[in-house]
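General statements about sequence and structure are easier to judge against a single worked case. No coordinates are needed to read the tokens, only the vocabulary itself. The sequence in question and its structure tokens are set out directly beneath this paragraph.
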Amino acid sequence: MNDEVIYGRNAVWELLQSGKPVNKLLFQSEGTGGRFQDMVSHARGHQIPFQFVDKVALDRLTEKAKHQGVLAYVSPREYAEVEDILALAKDKGEDPFILVLDEVEDPHNLGALIRTADAAGVHGVIIPKRRSVSLTSTVAKTSAGAIEHVLVARVGNLVQTLKDLQKAGCWVSGAEAGGTEVYHSDLTGSRVIVVGSEGKGLSRLVKETCDEIVSLPMRGKINSLNASVAGSILLYEVVRQRSGR
């Protein structure tokens, strides 16, 4: 057990009422009746992911504590809004520089990318609410403290968010094999870098929404890189081009 998990009807309900960031809710599926109707309605209204699981799963996650059929995963810090990220760039007098992660599921990759984002001067990171790792204690630890300094927004519709960023004047560059070699692409100006999941890369709709697809040259036998490694190289190519070197 760690501070990411809160369980019990009263404790979870108070958590929801407090407005603190909740990554996900788990409800006991069997014999629940309408016991969790208020919580489910709240989750739907606030776009909090939730899932029904059996009692055995909740017993395991709470080490057989009295969970009363409900458990919440809590974020170690507040999420930002996309508008906060754009406002930060404006306040600094800089072109927006944003990292978007499409269904990255490994907390170590997310933490490493947040750490690189901080070092590279990224104004914010955007992740989807579903099919993606959230901010957890593992992410916080892997980021080596960068989680406290980088704005992270969590959105319900990644494709719509990318379209909104395009309307705000950002050029969206998706990272995937088969695109323009990144060293031959102009990455200056208002820039969004999109990195896909560890196994599947960019999802179809996200890829179709990107303004361009850029790729890293692969000279060896392996045809792909770890998501955090590839993302870090791309972020620093943006830094290099922005510095005019």
